[in-house]
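subagent[fold] <- orchestrator: predict structure for attached chain, return tokens only, no commentary.
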Amino acid sequence: MPSGPGAAPQTTPKVVTFGEIMLRLSPPGFERLLQSPMLVATFGGGEANAAVSLAHLGADSVYVTALPKNAIGDAAIRALRAEGVRTEHIVRSGERVGIYYAETGASQRASTVLYDRANSAISQMLPDAVDWTRVMEGAAWLHVTGITPALGERGTAATATAIAAARRAGARVSVDLNYRKKLWTEPRAQEVMGPMMRDVDVVIANEEDLQSVLGVHVPGTDVTSGQLNLQGFREAAERVTRDFGPSQVAITLRESLSASDNGWSAVFWDGSQKTMYESQRYSVRLVDRIGGGDSFAA
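subagent[fold] -> orchestrator:
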């Protein structure tokens, strides 16, 4: 790395993420919920996971959310700061932190997630609660997901407000579609997320997200059986850039051999160059399934 009087200054890109951080309660190891009277408490959430990964990758990672003024909210902020994430723009409001209960899958038994997030702080946050002009000052990137709009009208408005501020600041915008059928329906997801894509630069998704959130089908693909049609993914990505507006699409390709073993790879479509890039394939023994897509987004 160059140094000395004539060296160019080294800059670290500022990346802002926005969404809900939740309290995660999980039984130890591969146990079922309450198989033993113990739950391990940690924190997680799609955008928070991405923020932590970005900090680990060396970015100036700034996370925005709403958390109540109580001990759990304080603990969530401490957990983020411990990973190198900046938290000064977090809004302290609302009555509760959302909770999810997660069982780790094993072999043929799939992982299970149960939500308890109704009326959480971020779902009650007003769109003008965040000073987005200040947050986005000097930022190179804003990253959001389709989870926050799924929380209701205020979540949708807050996400749209954040994206608009990013465009004004000249920052690029990425959206991980992250469809959650436990939070909303496919027709509602398409109604909300479709128009939002006009102000997005990069879409991050898997084949289910593309179908459920944008109504874009990937032909000739069945990840359960391990059948992946790369030409089908190219056609789907090209349709996203043509019909919705983003110039780039990143798609994760996961072959679910079991809850414990997956095949992972990805493709990246650059609409401006009409070029698709394919990663190598990794055979993965899963330690914790939750958050894998968020680390890919980062």
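orchestrator: received. Logging for downstream: Confidence is low (pLDDT under 50) at residues 1-10. The first strand starts at residue 14 and ends at 18.
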